[in-house]
Every structure is written in structure tokens, then in C-alpha cells.
Amino acid sequence: MLFWPKTKTENKNLQMIGLALFVASFLFIPKIAHLDDSQTITEEEKQKIITETNQQIDEKQTQIDELQKKIDQYKESIAIKQREQATIQSEVSLISDRIAKKEAEVASKQTIIEKLELEISDLQYKIGEKSNEIGSEKQDLGEIIREMYEFDQKTYLEVVVANKNFSDYFLQLQYIEELGNKTKDALDTLQNLKDSLIQQNVSLDEKKADVELERNKLVADQQDLEGEKSYQDNLLFQTQMDENKFQQLVDEVKAEQNKANSTITDLEREMRNRLEGEAYDGGGAEIIAGTATLSWPVDPSLGISCGFHCGDYPFARWFQHNAIDIRTSQGTALRAAASGYVAIAKDAGLGYSYILIVHGDGLATVYGHVSRIDVVPDQFVRRGDVIGATGGMPGMPGTGSFSTGAHLHFEVRIDGIPDDPMKYLP
To answer: Which of 55, 182, 202, 407 is the most buried (most CB within 10 A)?
Structure first.
């Protein structure tokens, strides 16, 4: 059988077809999200879905803004009341504001999560639509390529039969070249759709990560709220709204704190004198050199409820906060932040219980509000060893009278002077 010899144009077209088939086989990614009815509903209905979702997102944002205004108002009220004279009435009023503020923060976190979930739903819908659009473009491209292929397979006899003269044949050659250009345009369109789809999926993953983060924050805020309410109940139970009982309680807590600070200072000095001259480092040298070598004593994923010398410390009227409070559940395993010797492991029953570990080169760490103690004085512990369990929930063992929720009170001392622990943590 004789075949019409292929021109340069035809060879070019064949190369383009082969290239298109090759690229098309690798270009596309599968659908990540899909709406079952996305191919059957009308454009008007699609637009209605998008509009309604965006309206709901805007409504959630309005709610978040309003809640933030309430939170800011409570912050101002709390700051004012913290400067007032400490009485049982002012303390109860202060607690009420803190509870109201925390309730607003919980509601805000819940609304933020709802807004993010709506944004995820919107993205998933758009991804489904983009995937369907890619499918349609792939189908169109396939039809173009098939038409080009079928034309290229025609023999000379078929060309003569199909066309009355050579001008018709050359018109067909011109048409096939136009199909080649359409193929290139289709490939460009598909590449743009793919890039858009990839970016939307990246945004979707980011939104999902944001939801997980906000859920962790919500858990932390709910825990703080529970602690504030427990502190309020415990305070009312201990004082019965009696001013004399309240002032007596404050004096007892002040005395307990002063005694704890004095004991920590004395026993740290005593332990260092005993260790003097021994070939022991304990990691302190790297601390002094500015390297963050301490490990987190508990998982910090729930965040810090009160930082070093933080301005919103609930008991700022009586004590300076020389530590960080790390949110954690009551009874969480507590680990040594660095290797060292236990100088004191104070079990105060329902009072303030704590552990002091002395490290090298003037470094010491204190772990407060512990509900269980697993070490004894003079015991050597290594970084990461379990030394007890956390506490802090009002009315629970090891907490003491003044605490507004489960947490670890974590101190770092350099040559006996408290320093910001965040400077030494990774």
C-alpha cells in the first residue's frame, strides 16, 4: 500500500501529539475533594452555595470581633481591680471578671474553629470544582489529540477520496496545525489549573493545621476556666466571705511563700558548698555561655498561662511571679530539665509542694505545685528522669491556697537569683 509522504508540517504535528500525550500522562493530579452534585447543579446554584458560605464566614468574624471587644473590656477591668486594696469583696469581684473573660475567650476560640471549618468547607468545594474543570479540559484535549491522530493515519488513497483536490488537502493540513496550537493552549490551561489546585490544597492543609492549633488553645482555655471556677469555690469555702479569714489566709500564703524562697536559697547554697571541688558540670556551663540547654519539664503544647513577671498574674497584689506557668493536666509526669542533684523535695500535703534541683555553674531549677514526688534530697537525676507529677488544681495535693488551675510553676535561678526560664529553653 502506498502512503502519502509526510511533510515537515505533518512531522511537526506528530511530534506535538507525542509530546502532548507524554505531558498529559504526567501533568495531572487526582481529585482531592469532590462534591457528588457538583456536575449536576447549575451555575446559579453553585454561586448561591459560595455566597451563603462566605456570608456565614463573615458572620463568624463579626462574632469574633465582638467577643474580642468584651475580652479587652474585662482586661481593663481586671487591671483596675488588681490595683485596688485586697479585700474578700474585691478578690471575689476580680475572680468574677477573670471567669467572665475566660468564658469570652472560650467562646471566641469555639467561634474561630467554626469559622475555620467553614473556610475548609469552602476550599473543599472549590477544589472539587477545580478538579471537575481539569477533568473537562482533559476530555477536550483528548478529543483534539484523537482527531489529530486519526487525520495523520490517513493514506494517500483516503486523502484523494476524501478531498476533491489538493487545495482541500492543504486546507486540512492548515486545520491540523490549528489543532496543534489548540493542543498547546489546552496544555497551558491545564497547567494553570493544576497550579491553582495545588495552591488550594496547600491552603486547605494550612487551614486544617490552624484548626488543630485553635483546638489546643480551646482545651487550654477550658482548663483555665475550670481552674478559675475551682479557685473561686475553694476561696469561698475557706473564707465564707469573712474578711478576717481572708486576710488570715493571705498572711498564711505570704508566709508560706517567703519560707519556701528562704529554704530554696539556703539549701541551694548548702548543696553547692557540698559539690564544690567535685568534677561535676550538670550542663550549667553551657547555660552561662548562652546556649539553651534546658529541656521542657512537661509538654509545652498547651502554652504558657503566665510568663516571667507577667502583668496579668492573678496574685500580683501579693507576689511577683518569678517563674513561668506551663499549662498541663493535673498528675502529668514531671521530668528534670537538666542533670543535677535534688536539694529539696518538699511535700506540703495540701500546701505548696515543690522540688529544687541544683545543676552546675550556678544554675538551679524549681518545680512548683507538684502533686507527687518521686525523688529524695541528695539524689542525682539525669535530664529527662521522671521526678514526680504536676498539680496546681485548687484544693488538690501540692497546690497550695492560691492557684487558678492545673499547671507547672517552673523557675530557673542563676546564682540564687530568679531569671526568665524562656531564655534557657529550646
So the answer is: 407
pTM score of the predicted model: 0.73
Any residues with CB less than 8 A from the CB of 120 and at least 6 apart, and which? 204, 207, 208, 211
Could you say which DSSP state residue 4 is in? P
Torsion of the alpha carbons at 257, 261, 266 and 272, rounded to the nearest 10 = 140
CA atoms within 13 A on the CB side of 188: 6
Backbone angles phi, psi at 136, to 5 degrees: -65, -45
Whole-angstrom distance, CA of residue 47 vs CA of residue 126 = 11
Sheet strand arrangement including 386-390: 333-335, 386-390, 370-373
Cα distances from 265 to residues 176, 190, 280, 324, 398, in angstroms, run 90, 71, 20, 19, 20
Closest CA to 340 of 367, 372, 307, 308: 367
pLDDT digits (tens, 9 = 90+) for 129-179: 888 877 887 777 777 777 666 666 555 455 555 555 556 556 665 666 666
- pLDDT tens column, 157-166: 555 555 555 5
Which of these, 142, 186, 180, 185, lies nearest to 14 by C-alpha position?
A: 180
Is the pLDDT at 231 greater than 80, yes or no? yes
Helices (H), 153-165: 156-162
Among candidates 322, 110, 99, 132, which has minimal Cα distance to 224?
99
